[in-house]
């Protein structure tokens, strides 16, 4: 006996087969839309559900493949002034704005924080991070997307008009 694949689900990954069967069965009964999903956030951003929304970003949270834990990015805010020995205040975030793809699997992500986050640098989880009045930081990191097993799309927001 394996992991349930013997019941007619013959795939390399039993979990994929089971999930596909559940989705098919559920869709046979009733079609429902997710209130929050990547597809919904992208549609909201593009204004496909409403006219001219003013939204400009689909914020995301990524989960590391090796630990299945949320990924936290770090960077420094530039220092205003002439202090050449100061790299600036360190910031961290679980929330990112995808900026651009570099190749098939590498991307540039911008750290997104709340205007209300002042001195926190290391949040314990995404749930500890404030999400009201999110803003782009200008702090960008380059990631290998092959290192992640999951992406959560948050509802589309306006980072540049608030």
Q: How would you explain this protein's 3D organization?
A:
With 162 residues, this protein is α+β, with helices and mostly antiparallel strands. The protein has a domain at 54-153. It is 15% helix and 28% strand. The chain has helices at residues 14-29, 38-46, and strands spanning 60-64, 73-76, 90-93, 96-101, 106-114, 134-144, 148-153. The strands form 3 sheets. The chain has a 3-stranded antiparallel sheet with strand order 4-5-6, with no helix packed on it. Strands 1-7 form a two-stranded antiparallel ribbon. Strand 4 and strand 5 form a beta hairpin. The longest helix is centred in the N-terminal third of the chain and has 16 residues, at 14-29. The N and C termini lie far apart (57 Å). Mean pLDDT is 79; it is low at 1-7. Keywords: Capsid protein, Virion. Pfam families: Spore-coat_CotZ. It comes from Paracerasibacillus soli.
Count, helices: 2
What's the Cα radius of gyration? 20 Å
Structural class: alpha+beta
In this structure, how is the largest beta sheet organized? 3 strands, antiparallel
Read across the widest sheet, the strand sequence of neighbours is 4-5-6
- First-to-last CA distance: 57 Å
Number of strands: 7
Q: What percent of the residues sit in helical stretches (DSSP H or I)?
A: 10-25%
- Inertia-based shape: globular
Low-confidence stretches: 1-7
Listing every helix as H and every strand as E from the N terminus to the C terminus, the arrangement reads: HHEEEEEEE
The fraction of residues assigned to DSSP E strands is 25-35%
Overall pLDDT: 79
